[in-house]
Design goal:
With 191 residues, this protein is mainly α. It has one domain (8-189): Hypothetical protein, domain 2 (Endonuclease III, domain 1, Orthogonal Bundle), CATH 1.10.340. 54% of the residues lie in helices and 2% in strands. The chain is built from ten helices and two strands. The protein has a two-stranded parallel ribbon.
């Protein structure tokens, strides 16, 4: 069997490759998944994504499977327990941000009906398909991630800078940044 050609960042780690092959860049319109990824991308700030992938199940357990209704009501006592939990990144600012972001997420749902409807507006409702041949060509931010960041921050979201927003857009398929030589490029392009 011929070896699959993947984006360079997928490396040789099986977990990383599975994430690359099955999830990254696949358009998601599922509010629950979009919220989870927003929290995880914020948690990743300053760290390698593989660190967060390895802790993902721990995050799901610790944050009530990313139930925003429950997260929005976390008490100082619950936050204190989270800060002692080795299954997640125990950064006070990031844990507090997850709670604040849950509250902001619920506000968006109240106002827009769906988070997907709100968040996908930054790419006019459909994935932007890029044609990068090398990782060096892939930007860290774009005008769209700048606009998303500005809008989310205005609503009170934390850990929502443009670089985090662009990584989020890549992860949930708002942009297809698979390299053109990657076997996932065509799959995500036709999604």
């Amino acid at each position: 069997m011929a070896q699959r050609i993947r984006c360079d960042w997928a490396g040789n780690d099986e977990l990383y490759q599975r994430y690359h092959d099955e999830e990254w860049g696949v358009p998601s319109y599922d509010d629950q998944h979009l919220f989870e990824m927003l929290i995880l991308e914020g948690a990743q700030a300053g760290l390698n994504w593989i660190t967060i992938l390895r802790k993902r199940e721990g995050y799901r357990r610790a944050f009530d499977n990313f139930d925003a209704e429950k997260m929005a009501r976390y008490t100082p006592k619950k936050i204190g327990k989270l800060l002692l939990n080795p299954e997640i990144v125990r950064n006070r600012l990031k844990v507090h941000a997850a709670v604040i972001n849950a509250q902001c997420y619920l506000d968006v749902l109240q106002e827009h009906g769906t988070f997907a409807g709100y968040i996908w507006q930054f790419v006019d409702g459909k994935p932007r398909v890029n044609k990068w041949k090398t990782m060096k060509q892939v930007p860290a931010t774009t005008a769209q991630s700048d606009a998303m960041s500005k809008a989310l921050k205005k609503r009170g979201f934390k850990f929502a800078g443009s670089t985090i927003c662009y990584a989020y857009m890549q992860a949930v398929g708002m942009v297809n940044d698979h390299l053109t030589g990657c076997f996932c490029y065509r799959k995500c392009k036709s999604s």
